[in-house]
Structures are given as C-alpha cells and as structure tokens.
Amino acid sequence: MKANVHGHKETRTRTGIKILLTSLSAMVAETSTFPIDLTKTRLQLHGESQPLSSSTRRPTNSFRVAAGIVRDQGASGLYKGLSPAIIRHLFYTPIRIVGYENLRNLVSADGSLSLSSKALVGGISGAIAQY
C-alpha cells in the first residue's frame, strides 16, 4: 500500500515538472519568434493596403518593416502584444502536450500506437486544449 501511494505522488510530481517545463519552453519559443511573426504580419498588412496597380508602390521586405518598427516605436515595439501570446502558451501548450501523453498512455499501456492513432490522440488533446 505504501509503495502505491509513493508511486502516485511520484507520478504527480513528474507531471507537474512536465507542465512547468512545457510552459517555460513554449514561452521562451514565443518570445524568441514573436518579432519575426510581428514583422510577417505587418508585411502582410502592408501588401494588402497597397493596390496592385499602384505606381507609387514602394517595394518592401521584412528587414525594412522591422527597421520601421524599431525606428517608430523603439526595440520594444517588436514585442508589442507579447503578453497575450505568453499567457496563451502558459495554459494551451502544457494542456496539449501533457494531455497527449496521458491520452496516449490511457489508450496504450506501453505507449506504442500506430501513426493514425497518434494523429487521433493528438487531435483530441489539441481540441481539449483549445477549449
């Protein structure tokens, strides 16, 4: 009986560490890639705001867009809107990743699944995390 209680506590601790590390790694990844994503979005919006036949259309690229953000808003402008993205990853990513592992272990005791089963379990865990 004592070994079973101890094993349950160890599993909970391991799950807690997985949640913590998953959240941390997702936040680091989001922080690292956010300026690139912001620049991409601004570049897409810039292209939509210009008519295709405009003779005054000035060619632009991602470096020019990023430099414009830094010039107008400072370097911190590249991280405007980061807070909601971090909060999203604080919850969404660990639910998706740890949920996948728990569902996979529930379906298969040894964790070995076919590719289609892995896709199904991954889709379920992603849907649960999304809502």
Task: Give the topology.
Elements: H1 2-49, H2 62-73, H3 82-107, H4 115-130
Features:
131 residues; mainly alpha; 4 helices; 78% helix
Could you explain how this protein is built, in words?
There is one protein chain. The protein is mainly α and 131 residues long. The protein has a domain at 2-40 and 81-130. The chain is 78% helix and 0% strand. It has four helices and no strands. Helix 1 crosses helix 2. The longest helix is centred in the N-terminal third of the chain and has 48 residues, at 2-49. The chain is elongated. The chain starts with a helix and ends with a helix.
Mean pLDDT score: 86
Shape type: elongated
Low-pLDDT sequence parts: none
Query: What's the end-to-end separation, in Å?
Result: 37 Å
The helix count comes to 4
Category by helix and strand content: mainly alpha
Query: What series of H and E elements makes up the topology?
Result: HHHH
| Rg over CA atoms | 22 Å
Strand content: under 5%
